[in-house]
Specification:
The chain is an alpha+beta fold and 360 residues long. The protein has 2 domains: 9-165, no CATH class; 182-356, Protein Transport Mog1p, Chain A. The protein has helices spanning 14-37, 41-66, 126-136, 149-174, 241-244, 247-255, 261-270, 275-284, 341-349; strands at 9-11, 68-72, 77-80, 86-87, 93-99, 102-108, 116-122, 141-147, 183-185, 200-202, 205-207, 213-219, 222-227, 233-239, 288-297, 301-310, 313-322, 328-335, 352-353. The strands form 4 sheets. Strands 9-15-16-17-18-14-13-12 form an 8-stranded mixed β-sheet. The protein has a 4-stranded antiparallel β-sheet with strand order 1-2-3-4. A 4-stranded mixed β-sheet has the order 7-6-5-8. Strand 15 and strand 16 form a beta hairpin. Helix 1 (14-37) packs antiparallel against helix 2 (41-66) and helix 1 packs parallel to helix 4 (149-174). It is elongated, with a radius of gyration of 32 Å.
């Protein structure tokens, strides 16, 4: 828009810059969130949009205040509000980039020197600006390119989608265990506590082990057990959300719907699409072979069981969390013999919350 003070002064439009930038921001954030986290990406989209919009608004305000220039015909130069003035005789060419109603104009002043003249000019002022420039710079070459908003957006999102799909296909091909889906079971709390088997308490949880296991001690809050016969070892640990995900990690994960370490693992196991869940699943299953996964979701507890061979040793992991996203209880079971599903069911079935234990 021309200034009332001088017909040779041009100003950028902060609102136009904001609308144009927001279009790409929202579109890119939506597709990237879907590609990175699958169906769980909507929270990431809201978080990213909420964090970036204030930045875009600030940039638009700066454009409104500083994106302007005028022609100083007395001294034969272009005077910009930011940056140095440019003499007419140094300008070799004019570059015009139009995206929708937004026009950006740069000046070619030499090898690799292309200072921006105006960043957010409205389309309706384009012809007037070019006329003013060509009147003063008759020998300057004009290079103009026009991009439709829709085509640019589709091209950008198509490239992002293709790159993510290729990465997704490569990871699932390279690591077959990523294609394993957890089998839903109903083991948690299925076994009523009895007086014949010792009960152990950690935090809000209570559990028991088969009679052949004996307690070996407590090391840094972890309970150690060993099988009298088979040599199988069990390590039981209890963690709070702060221990699982300290500081900023907990804040970020909570903002995208992951309340605790259990949610982090659960989403990685359950998701069929999404680059981040795939990478997290790979990290959790690193080194495993002959892997089996189980998932349990009761009224007050949730459980995940991973079973397989790691480092040439049979291993099983049991991860249990309260339904409200609080503390977690983790079992690490290792030994030479395969941990049978019957034993896993017996251990997982013994786990209760202390508030759920009936008095005997």
């Amino acid at each position: 828009m021309q200034s009332d003070a001088s017909p040779c002064t041009f100003r950028g439009h902060g609102t136009l810059f904001f609308l144009n930038t927001s279009l790409y921001l929202i579109g890119s954030a939506a597709v990237l969130s879907l590609l990175m986290l699958g169906i769980h990406g909507w929270r990431l989209f809201l978080l990213a949009t909420g964090a970036l919009l204030p930045i875009v608004i600030s940039m638009a305000a700066i454009v409104s205040l500083t994106d302007r220039f005028f022609f100083d015909d007395v001294h034969s130069r272009v005077v910009r509000s930011l940056g140095t003035s440019i003499p007419y005789d140094r300008i070799k060419g004019i570059q015009v980039r139009q995206t929708g109603n937004l026009v950006r104009v740069s000046l070619d002043t030499g090898w690799l020197a292309k200072p921006t003249l105006i960043l957010a000019l409205h389309l309706r002022e384009k012809d007037l600006l070019l006329k003013e420039l060509t009147d003063r710079l008759p020998g300057a070459r004009i290079h103009a390119k026009t991009f439709a908003d829709g085509k640019v957006m589709i091209s950008l999102l198509s490239i992002l989608s293709c790159l993510t799909i290729v990465a997704h296909a490569y990871l699932t091909y390279r690591f077959p265990e990523l294609r394993i889906e957890p089998r839903r079971v109903a083991w948690l709390g299925a076994q009523e506590p009895t007086q014949q088997v010792p009960r152990y308490y950690l935090g809000t949880f209570v559990f028991s082990l088969p009679e052949r296991f004996i307690a070996m001690g407590d090391i840094e809050g972890r309970l150690l057990f060993r099988d009298r016969v088979g040599g199988t070892a069990v390590v039981v640990s209890y963690r709070t959300p702060g221990q699982d995900m300290p500081g900023i990690n907990r804040f970020f994960l909570a903002s995208i719907g992951m309340r605790d370490y259990f949610d982090l693992v659960n989403i990685s196991y359950q998701s069929r699409f999404g680059l981040l869940p795939l990478v997290m699943k790979r990290m959790e299953l690193s080194g495993f072979s002959e892997t089996a996964l189980y998932y349990d979701d009761q009224f007050q507890m949730r459980g995940l069981v991973t079973q397989g061979i790691r480092n040439n040793e049979q291993e099983a992991q049991v991860l249990v969390a309260g339904a409200g996203g609080a503390e977690t209880l983790q079992f690490l079971i290792t030994g030479g013999k395969k941990v049978e599903e019957k034993m896993l069911k017996e251990i997982v079935g013994s786990i209760h919350l202390q508030t759920m234990i009936p008095s005997i």
